[in-house]
C-alpha cells in the first residue's frame, strides 16, 4: 500500500484525523443563523446565485423581536392520494373521485359517475389552495388541463375544461387520504451508504449540498488554505510568496501530494518578504545599499565578503548605536542563523563562497519579485472569487473604482481592493499598482487592468532571464546595451548629448531592431520595463537609470524563485507535520463547506420555488436536464478509488429528483393565505396585492370571483353572466324567463367563435364531495351549462 493510503487523511466516516466526533458539526448544522437570528447567506457580488432575489425579499420582512411570535402559512392539504367512493358498480350507482396531489405542484384528477367523467391530462394540471378552495388549474395559460366526457343517449361528447375548484373542507372530510410512498420511504429502492462511507458519517457523497463544491472532496481550495492560516493567527501577508509552492499546477486546489512536495525541495533560499525587509533595514541604517556594502567590505578587512563576515556584519549593525538600526535589530530578532544563511545563498545563487556589490544589489530585484508575487496572489484571488472572463474583470474594475472615474489612482485601487474584500493589507496592495500602470502615468485604465487576466509570474521571470541573456549575446553586455538605449533616446528626443535615462520607447526600438521579439515572442516588454523600475524601490517615472538596468548583472531566475523552507517550518511548528496540517485544514474546510452547502441548497430551492413559475422555460430546462445526483456522481467518478464510491444510489429521474415550486406562489406573490391554517405570512412591503377570492354567496353556491385573476372582455363577461343565470334557473336577457336545457344552450353557443377558457358553474357528480364544484369549460361549447341532477 502507498504512503498516502496508510497515512493520508480519512475523508469519510466519523473519525476525521484530528476530529474524533461530529458534535460541533451537528451544532453548526442545527444553528444556521445570522447575527440577528435571520438566515445568513453570502451572495458574491459578481457571481449571483438563485437565492439573490430571496435575500432581497427576506431583507424586506419585518424582523420580529425576541418575544414576538412569528408564524408562517401552512397548507391544509398534504401531498398524497385522496379517494372518494360511494355506491356500487353493479347497479350503476358507483360514484368515485381520485385525486393525487404532489409536492412539486403537479396533480392527477379523475372523477366518474353515471353518465360521464372528467380527468386531468397528464402533465398539464397543477394544484393550489386559495382560501377555502382547492383549485386544479391548467399549467399553461390558454390551454386546457382537463377533459370532460359525457354520454348523451348513444352519443359521447367530449369537452375541454380549464379549471376545477373543490371545497377543501369537503375534500378533508369526505376523502380517504393515503400519503405518497416517499413520505415513509423518500428514496424507494435506495440503500443508504454506511456511516463509514459518508462524510463525517452524516452526508452522502451524492448530497446536493456537495454539488457546488469548488474542488474535489479530497483536496483543499487554495483560498481555504490561506484562510485557515489566518484563523490561527499566522502572518499570511509575510509568507504570501511561499503559497505558490503548494499549488504548482495553478489549479486552485491543494492535495496531500502537493503539500508533501514541500519536504522535497533542495537548497533553501530566502523568501522575497525576508529579503525586502532586510533591504528596508539596511537602507534606513546606511542610506543606500551601496553604502551598506562599503561598510560590510570595510569590516571584512583584507578578506572577501563570505558568510561568516556577512553574519558578523549583521550582528554588529543590530547592536551598534550609530544610525537608525531599529529595523535591522527587529529583523535580526525575527530571523534565525539558518534564515540569514538562506539570505546569503539567495544573493549568491551560483554557490560562490563570496559575494560582490552586484550580488548585494540583487536585494532590489527581490523587492520587485515580492510585488510580482503579490500581484500573482491578487490575480488568483480574483479568479477564485469571481471568475476569469473579460466581463468579470470589467465589473471588478467598476467595483474597485468607487469614485466612478475612468481610471484608478493608487489610493483608489488600495481602498477599492479593501472594500472588495481582498484579505491582504494596504501596503502589499499598493506595491502591485506600479506593475499595473502600463502607461507610466500613475493611473490604471480598464485596458491596463484587463492585462491582469493574462499575467504570469513565471513567464515574467523567464522573460527577464531571456532579456539578460539577449543583452549579453547580442548587445555586447549589460553596460554596452544600456549605452545603446541612451543613444536611441538621444535620437528620439533630438538631444545634443547623451541623456542619463532611457524611456520605454528607446528600449522597445533597440529590442525590436536587435530581434528580441523573435527570440522571445511571449515576452511582455512593457512588464519587464515596469519590473526593473519597481526594483529600484521608487515608483516609475517612465525612464530607466543605469543602476536599474545594471540589476540585470546579478539576475538569476533560480534565486528569484525562492524556497518553501520557511512555509514548511511554519506548518511543522503549528501542526506537527505536513500530513497533520493537511488533515486539520481539510477537516475544518469540509465542516464549513457542508454547512454552507446546506444553506445554499435550502435557500436556492426556496428561491426557485418563489421565482421560477411551474412550467416556465427555466423550469422545463431544469426538469429535462441532467439530474442533480447524476452530475455529482459523474464528478465523484473522477475521485480516487479509496473514497469508496461504490455504494448503491437512489434512481435518478429528472422530475422526481428536483423539487418544483408550488405554483400558487407565481400567482400569489404575497404568500399563501390558507383558511386551513391559523398561521399567516405577512405580505412583502411594496409587493403587488394578491388575487382575492370572494366567499360564495348562498344563492350562487361556491361560485368565486375571477375578475381580478383573469381579465375578460365584455363578450366573455356576457357569456359568463348568461351561463350563471342559466345554471341558477334565472332568465337571461331577452328570454322569456324559462330555464333553457343543455341542448338549447348548445344551440345558442354554436355560432360563437372559439374563446379563451371561461369559468362556469357545474354541480358535480358527487353531491357529498363537490356540492357544488366549479368547472371551467372552453372551446366552441364554452357557453354550455350542464344542469344539476
Automatic annotation (TrEMBL):
Full protein name: Uncharacterized protein
Biased composition (Low complexity): 635-661, 699-708
Organism: Alexandrium catenella (Red tide dinoflagellate)
Source superkingdom: Eukaryota
Alphabetized UniProt keyword annotations: Calcium
Presence of keyword GTP-binding: no
Region ranges (Disordered): 615-710
Amino acid at each position: 500500500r502507498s504512503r498516502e493510503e496508510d497515512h493520508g487523511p480519512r475523508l469519510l466516516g466519523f473519525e476525521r484525523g484530528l476530529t474524533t466526533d461530529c458534535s460541533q458539526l451537528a451544532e453548526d448544522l442545527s444553528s444556521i443563523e445570522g447575527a440577528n437570528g435571520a438566515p445568513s447567506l453570502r451572495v458574491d457580488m459578481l457571481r449571483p446565485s438563485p437565492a439573490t432575489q430571496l435575500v432581497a425579499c427576506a431583507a424586506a420582512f419585518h424582523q420580529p423581536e425576541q418575544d414576538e411570535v412569528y408564524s408562517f402559512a401552512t397548507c391544509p392539504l398534504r401531498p398524497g392520494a385522496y379517494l372518494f367512493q360511494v355506491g356500487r358498480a353493479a347497479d350503476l350507482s358507483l360514484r368515485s373521485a381520485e385525486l393525487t396531489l404532489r409536492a412539486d405542484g403537479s396533480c392527477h384528477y379523475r372523477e366518474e359517475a353515471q353518465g360521464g367523467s372528467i380527468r386531468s391530462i397528464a402533465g398539464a394540471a397543477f394544484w393550489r389552495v386559495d382560501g377555502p378552495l382547492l383549485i386544479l388549474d391548467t399549467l399553461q395559460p390558454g390551454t386546457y388541463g382537463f377533459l370532460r366526457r359525457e354520454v348523451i343517449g348513444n352519443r359521447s361528447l367530449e369537452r375541454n375544461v380549464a379549471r376545477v375548484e373543490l371545497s377543501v373542507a369537503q375534500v378533508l372530510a369526505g376523502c380517504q387520504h393515503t400519503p405518497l410512498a416517499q413520505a415513509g420511504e423518500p428514496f424507494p429502492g435506495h440503500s443508504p451508504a454506511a456511516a463509514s462511507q459518508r462524510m463525517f458519517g452524516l452526508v452522502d457523497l451524492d448530497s446536493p449540498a456537495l454539488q457546488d463544491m469548488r474542488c474535489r472532496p479530497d483536496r483543499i481550495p487554495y483560498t481555504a488554505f490561506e484562510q485557515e492560516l489566518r484563523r490561527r493567527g499566522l502572518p499570511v501577508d509575510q509568507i504570501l510568496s511561499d503559497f505558490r509552492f503548494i499549488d504548482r499546477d495553478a489549479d486552485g486546489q491543494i492535495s496531500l501530494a502537493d503539500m508533501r512536495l514541500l519536504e522535497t525541495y533542495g537548497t533553501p533560499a530566502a523568501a522575497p518578504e525576508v529579503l525586502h525587509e532586510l533591504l528596508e533595514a539596511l537602507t534606513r541604517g546606511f542610506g543606500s545599499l551601496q553604502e551598506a556594502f562599503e561598510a560590510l567590505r570595510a569590516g571584512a578587512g583584507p578578506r572577501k565578503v563570505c558568510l561568516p563576515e556577512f553574519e558578523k556584519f549583521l550582528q554588529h549593525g543590530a547592536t551598534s548605536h550609530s544610525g537608525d538600526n531599529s529595523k535591522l535589530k527587529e529583523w535580526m530578532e525575527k530571523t534565525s542563523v539558518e534564515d540569514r544563511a538562506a539570505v546569503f545563498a539567495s544573493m549568491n545563487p551560483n554557490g560562490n563562497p563570496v559575494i560582490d556589490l552586484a550580488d548585494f544589489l540583487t536585494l532590489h530585484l527581490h523587492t520587485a519579485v515580492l510585488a510580482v508575487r503579490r500581484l500573482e496572489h491578487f490575480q488568483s484571488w480574483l479568479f477564485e472569487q469571481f471568475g476569469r472572463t473579460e466581463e468579470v474583470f470589467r465589473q471588478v474594475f467598476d467595483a474597485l473604482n468607487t469614485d466612478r472615474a475612468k481610471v484608478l489612482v493608487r489610493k483608489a485601487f488600495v481602498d477599492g481592493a479593501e472594500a472588495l474584500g481582498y484579505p491582504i493589507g494596504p501596503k502589499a496592495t499598493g506595491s502591485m499598482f506600479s506593475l499595473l500602470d502600463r502607461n507610466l502615468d500613475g493611473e490604471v485604465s480598464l485596458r491596463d487592468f484587463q492585462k491582469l487576466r493574462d499575467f504570469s509570474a513565471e513567464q515574467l521571470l523567464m522573460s527577464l532571464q531571456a532579456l539578460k541573456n539577449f543583452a549579453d549575446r547580442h548587445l555586447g553586455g549589460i553596460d554596452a546595451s544600456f549605452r545603446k538605449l541612451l543613444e536611441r533616446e538621444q535620437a528620439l528626443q533630438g538631444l545634443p548629448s547623451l541623456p542619463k535615462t532611457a524611456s520605454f520607447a528607446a528600449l522597445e526600438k533597440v529590442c525590436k531592431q536587435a530581434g528580441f521579439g523573435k527570440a522571445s515572442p511571449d515576452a511582455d516588454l512593457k512588464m519587464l520595463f515596469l519590473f526593473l523600475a519597481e526594483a529600484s524601490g521608487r515608483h516609475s517615472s517612465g525612464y530607466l537609470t543605469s543602476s536599474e538596468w545594471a540589476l540585470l548583472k546579478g539576475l538569476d531566475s533560480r534565486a528569484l524563485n525562492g524556497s518553501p523552507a520557511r512555509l514548511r517550518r511554519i506548518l511543522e511548528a503549528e501542526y506537527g507535520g505536513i500530513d497533520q496540517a493537511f488533515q486539520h485544514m481539510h477537516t475544518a474546510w469540509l465542516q464549513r463547506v457542508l454547512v454552507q452547502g446546506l444553506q445554499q441548497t435550502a435557500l436556492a430551492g426556496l428561491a426557485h420555488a418563489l421565482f421560477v413559475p411551474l412550467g416556465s422555460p427555466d423550469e422545463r430546462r431544469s426538469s429535462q436536464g441532467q439530474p442533480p445526483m447524476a452530475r455529482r456522481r459523474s464528478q465523484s467518478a473522477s475521485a480516487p478509488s479509496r473514497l469508496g464510491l461504490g455504494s448503491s444510489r437512489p434512481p435518478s429521474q429528472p422530475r422526481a429528483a428536483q423539487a418544483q415550486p408550488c405554483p400558487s406562489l407565481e400567482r400569489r406573490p404575497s404568500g399563501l393565505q390558507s383558511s386551513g391554517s391559523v398561521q399567516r405570512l405577512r405580505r412583502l412591503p411594496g409587493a403587488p396585492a394578491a388575487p382575492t377570492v370572494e366567499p360564495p354567496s348562498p344563492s350562487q353556491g361556491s361560485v368565486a370571483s375571477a375578475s381580478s385573476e383573469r381579465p375578460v372582455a365584455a363578450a366573455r363577461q356576457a357569456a359568463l353572466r348568461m351561463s350563471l343565470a342559466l345554471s341558477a334557473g334565472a332568465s337571461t336577457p331577452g328570454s322569456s324567463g324559462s330555464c333553457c336545457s343543455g341542448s338549447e344552450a348548445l344551440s345558442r353557443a354554436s355560432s360563437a367563435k372559439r374563446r379563451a377558457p371561461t369559468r362556469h358553474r357545474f354541480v358535480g357528480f358527487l353531491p357529498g364531495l363537490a356540492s357544488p364544484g366549479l368547472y371551467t369549460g372552453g372551446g366552441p361549447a364554452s357557453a354550455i351549462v350542464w344542469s344539476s341532477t
